[in-house]
């Protein structure tokens, strides 16, 4: 095993693919299907080349190379984090045993399912974002969009590698299916709800990369703990790339808030829609929407499947090694959100059963950091107004609160009241039309759209007015 990728191969990799001819051939025959998918379902804006980072190494330093490349020639590769030969399983009934280098027969179906679900989200987001290039607010943002897109494409490769290498024919069939399902499709939609929603504008894109890519971070964090070592190492490296996606979301919303606040102060009004920016009310509604659909991605508050995954060692907790308990959890309990006589409350359940809740709570506290950061911009401008995360009961379609409606404050509402008032909290057609009316492309070097502030820094120490993308 080497860290440095082999780029002389058709498929760049650090898994010594050439040592396994059968696997190499299987992946090489999947490659044209992937490229067809990229051509037909990937970014629609034609470009000459884009200033992209390409993974070349999994070590601590200098893992990526930056340069202008034509997107169809991007080198999607297979990279696993370095192997720790002594790695031991950190939790569950196999705790302390050596990590698995092969898939144990008894867990084959479950592991395959976990990999397919993760894999399905990666190309889904590329599909959701495919038309955004046409309305990019700057070349800097356009480049970031494409960077996220090519890396989600690489994450698909990461999961397809595992399916091909460890799951035989069934795995190869699943790899094909990952290209056949499409976001929002009637006949063959993506597996998870949030990945069938549209990403029609850049406010949605930044909220998606903040909230929904962050869900991805937490899912990958649990798979990084897996006893199945190749899955663990794959996810560890994906997390490295993922942090840039969330940076795009965090700073994207920063820059929108900054611009809106600037105009609010200048015009001395909250009602700034007429001045070519996005009012705070609309930002809050988009936040409410993306946060609530992302909470659904964590599944029900209780789950026996997830308890079994944990006990078997397939999927751990966020920061498993930092938890101060026995890492088996057979005698522990947790309070989970639940409906009690129809009201929003909590109940105590076995810790193993409540693992989805544990993960969702880690996620929620991470989400708060962004909101605090955006609120600092409001605070420093001397404004009273604050953004906030809505209640866990708000706008949920999965879990304990799927059957009820609630305000962002967590007050239960009747279905009628919800219908009457939901436009106060979720984007209405008026909000969406306004946001979309601002989405006019700024594809000129060094220029930026009216509704967003320029970034503080460029990419890889380049200035904001760098030629990040060459259009035809
Ligand atoms: Fe990803
Ligand atoms: Fe991502």
Instruction: Output mean pLDDT.
Output: 95
Number of helices: 11
Each distinct ligand: fe (ii) ion
Q: Spatial order of the strands in the main sheet?
A: 2-1-7
Low-confidence stretches: none
Number of E strands: 7
Radius of gyration based on Cα positions = 23 Å
- The shape, in one word, is globular
- Judged by helices, strands and strand pairing, the structural class is mainly alpha
Strand content: 5-15%
Percent helix range:
40-55%
Element-level helix/strand string: HEEHHHHHHHEEHEEHHE
* Main beta-sheet strand count, sense and barrel state: 3 strands, antiparallel
Could you give the distance between the termini? 41 Å
Q: Which terms summarize this structure?
A:
11 helices; 7% strand; mainly alpha; globular; binds fe (ii) ion; 472 residues; three-stranded antiparallel β-sheet; 45% helix
